[in-house]
Amino acid sequence: MDKAALATALGSPAAFGQSQFAFMRGNAFEAKVKADGGTELLRLLYERLGGPGEAPHEVRVPDLAAAGPEGRAARTALALREATAAQGWTLLDHPLLALEVAGSPAYLEPDAVVVHPEGTWTVVEIKSFPMIDGSADAAKVGAAARQSAVYVLALERIAAMTEGAEVGHRVLLVCPKDFSNLPTASVVDVRKQRAVTRRQLTRLTRIEDIAATLPEDATFDPGCSPQELHRAVDAVGAAYAPECLAACELAFHCRERSRARGAVEALGRSVRGELGGLTTVGAVLAAAAGKEGDPADPTVAALRRAAALRAEALEGRAVCH
Amino acid sequence: MSLITTLARLEAVESGRAQPLTTVRHRHLTGRPLVLVPLATAGEAGAPLGALVGTDREAPRLLAVAQPRDRELRFAFLAELAEAVLPHIESYAGVVEPAERSQIDPETGKKTKVEVELCTDAAQLIVPSRAGIDFVRLLGRSMRFRRTAEDDPDTPYPAPARVPLLGRWLTHYAERARVPGSSLLLATTDLLNRHWATGQSSLEDQHLGALLAWIAPSDGGSGAEAALRAELERDREGQLLCPPAGPATDPAFDNRLLAPAIEAYDRARTALAAAEDGLAADALLAELARAERQIRSLLAKVALPTWDAVWRGLDLLAGLPEGARAEDRWTRDRWSFTAHRDRVLAGEPPQPRRDDAVTAAQKLASREAAQAQLDAQEALDDPLVLAGRRLAGEAFVGEVTGVEMAYSESKRPSPRPLVTVRTDEHPHLGGRTKVYRSLDGKPQTAEFVSGTPAEEGGLLLVLRITDRMGRSKEPAPGSVPEPGDRTVWTLFEHDPRGGPKLPDPEETPWTHGGPPGAAVERAERPDPVTAEDLL
Amino acid sequence: MSSTRATFDPGAEATRATDAILHDTLRGSSRGVVVDSPPGAGKSTLVVRAALELAAAGRPLMVIAQTNAQVDDLVVRLAEKEPGLPVGRLHSNDSDPYDTVLDGLENVRKSAKATDLAGLDIVISTAAKWAHVKNVEPWGHAIVDEAYQMRSDALLAVAGLFERALFVGDPGQLDPFSIVGADQWAGLSYDPSASAVSTLLAHNPELPQHRLPVSWRLPASAAPLVSDAFYPYTPFRSGTAHGERRLAFAVPSDGSGPDRVLDEAAESGWGLLELPARHTPRTDPEAVRAVARTVRRLLDRGGAATSERSPHPVPVTADRVAVGTAHRDQAAAVRAALAELGVTGVAVDTANRLQGREFDVTVVLHPLSGRPDATAFHLETGRLCVLASRHRHACVVVCREGVAELLDEHPSTEPVQLGVTVKFPDGWDANHSVLAHLAEHRVRWRP
Predict the structure, then answer these.
(1) Position A231 pLDDT exceeds 80
(2) From which residue to which does any coiled coil extend (chain C) (predicted)?
(3) How confident is the model at residue A232 (pLDDT cuts 50, 70, 90)?
(4) How close B180 comes to chain C (CA, Å)?
(5) Residue B144 is part of which domain span?
(6) For residue A170, what is the nearest residue in chain C, using CA coordinates?
(7) Contact of B506 with B514, CB cutoff 8 Å
(8) pTM for this prediction
(9) Does A66 score more than 80 pLDDT?
(10) Phi and psi (nearest 5°) for C252?
(11) Do C210 and C232 share a domain, yes or no?
């Protein structure tokens, strides 16, 4: 589903898009890292992850081209098995992995997977944000780790059927070094993200279950009228929080709805923490003003105390000194 | 988020206007701040695209990099930035007053007072947003290890003369910005968010345009609607009317306007380089100048709204009276400014890439102390901030209902009067919790003795006052509150102290890797440069 | 491991571990020895024993603990074991700097000045106080207690005072924290906001590391869950077998939720009293009353605990019961509710303050109960670990329905700092696994 097109049709276009400068740099960097048959990439990998096994001299880079995602995924699985049996260094450039997500197959494309001579498979993520003096933007590294954890899980399904294969839980993150275009790398332990993702995958609502809760005539076709689309989108339960703005094309639409409802979450998840069962701006303010709510409810009592203290301070009664 | 802040946000939603979070301004603003609005190239670390800089809101200086991936042009930009920033800093570095500092005499090991210079004021730097502070840090890091031709005649791609020095100053400012309550380098969004609550989330509050729209909508209408327009409204070319405050630019700007302009510039340069005779070169040079002007005008257009927004923000802040203790924190900033000036004058090397163990621990300890101090000072300076602490049970206001004289059990009994205070609040008192009140600007300590429900509602708290009553047997006049007095007590100290002294770096213990030694020298080496500096 | 399962002798395993630790401490050549101790694995016993053996060997010893309560507790334990041993209690200049119990101990000298205590076999104080001690001859040996709760910068301030040290602590409990950001040092081996042990091991990876393998506190019903959920890579076992610990009530159940959950907990070691789903304030009055009511019924029904400690059942009195919460205001609300029901003497505190303590039965107000959001604070692995590992017999958790769904809405999206050794497990994941286990011992109740 094209959520960006849907958002535009709903009248809340997303401010998304990537600068072509960033895009070009990202591509140029990945090409530089993988240049020369992956020599530099394998050198970094061996330097950071070490043995067992000899330092890579010869690196096989199998052709993974095939027709369609299923074909490419099958080709990747075959290449992984062959590489493991060959007991040498193999670089899989943009392999395609299949993973069942919410009951539907999803295809994933890691930047690279390296097969070590002794059978370990290592996920490689190439990012264009810099590592400056050995550290990098933690939010971006976190996102890369979660992304890699999904690849690890997908690879584990293939490894389970491959003699002598084991998927490394330490992935290699390759980034530009300092202010240069030279690659540097860091090992990221993704055991935690893997455990979390695995649990999330088992807990994700199946897509058919979501579809089953929708009205039969629901449509997400951007060509439909805004009214029809609004109805359909609103039928899908969505818990809007401001964090969505950075992640989802539909966030501006959801925010508009959330604000219209007077939902307090529109101000941030943390706002709700102390508001107990009160979920709308109107209800909170009415409770604070003493117009609604049970004074025995600790939330209501605290709100009234807060309102009184705030009013007292704003009246400028000199209480200090 | 405290409930009182939440309430302010909800009031903002309802009223459509931002609501005050403070009654005073808690950050010092100098009369002549240097405003810097930097722009960066997407996807490239520390690659400046342009900047507006200056102390006169009517006359910003526009700096631009026509081709951000060209090292020479980048150096030219940085040299120009140094010329815009360093004279401002130096104008403060030269004006000093005598001051005293306690220092440990290396021979006797005793604390002695030494007379030193303290800059009477410090240069203040204002950027639009927190990302701007990070960019200042990044610029500082990218410049301070550079070598100039004077440093090393053999260095490849020498940096312009004052660039490494600017790197050191920007590094110092960015590092100081991490100290709670400091005001050397401030982000306008942080300043505004400290003083007003909007009806949107703190995430959305990072958008300077939207934030200002909530506080002072330009058309005087609904702040909420003005904020939405600031976030989303675009002109017919698809460009945001209120561009992001940077340093990142809007992708639509990059792709639709900037990229074609840079391409035109590159074409003109290539053509100029291939020019076969002087006449053709003149024409091509004019073409190149035109292409460069086009880029400059694009950057000016996209940065000017932010420039104006920063100044409007400063106007709003200047409208608040400064909190009494903000000056005290600014004095610390002046000490920090002076200390860096002295390090530069003494010819010390640039700040290392990473702190050694002792420096890191010292910085953390001093920042924790600064945070505790800031929290205390803001509450003492501002009844609205204090209200939040009262709600949290960390302070209370009450009326004195009785005073009973008592004395300590020692050879020379000192006064320990028991003061009964009635309050409607719920302070977290227990055991012999210490509480403090401000007496002539200095903290007086008492300890909690007992609490019982009062007949007329609320609590009767008995507190034993333990200090600041003078040396004689009877408390000094005015040092003990009297019945009917309205008193303000805090459970937090008013002037929290820092931690213990740490070992010198040369005495770093084995648990922390021993003395840093050679690692220090390594940390100051210049970054390796590659022939190809761009991607 | 599986082959030894049938013949696992907890006493022998624990002795072997202790002997190795003492050997490395007294006779080893390393400057440091690190001991990981899961909840109730005999850490205090080990510290006292190591201290006495070092003293007996004529090695001047300093002991560094993290809180004054821990220091006083250690002094008392040492005096109980070896009343004649000269012990120094170095204390602060504050009023009431130490527990007055120490005044009754003949060979314990107290002073705020380290020089006053010079020459005593053992000198004990907090890390904060030790940090102010300057210009003294270093001690040959130190024991650092609760080393995982000590910050790296606190160790930096005191490490010059000793030549060698034994570091003991529980890696699964709450991490130390700082009130300001310390991200700029993340990934550095000496990150001042990290735990003392992580810095120590980053610089001295060759140091011998031991693990106490047996929890004497946690019953057989609890050790596997706590070990799997919070110590997945360093598992431990219970010192007692199923059936060795029993909890029984003289008064039969009245059929109410609290009684049914108590019966479930007595039978299985765990009980989940689940209240209807609802978003509530932190001091959810219904949940607070349910906690208080459960405690009241536990005491009223004449609970008696049978364990390896005594041949006869021992009454579960108020001092053997604790209530754990995430926040201070919740603890205050529970205290008030207990007072209303006439219950006194039950420890009610936050996870931070219950660290290191032990009870027969605990009643826990689940940190996520009724919450509309799950913050990093509420998801912190150590918090849940502390709350779920204070009991010798049974743990009752009171919680609103819907926490699993809440967790699903707040997927773990933690930032990752390069170079930082990953601490296991993830709070989100650990919360889910504890919840899944508790669900098997669920008693639904509509108060």
Answers:
(1) no
(2) none
(3) low
(4) 8
(5) 3-236+306-348
(6) C422
(7) no
(8) 0.93
(9) yes
(10) -70, 165
(11) no
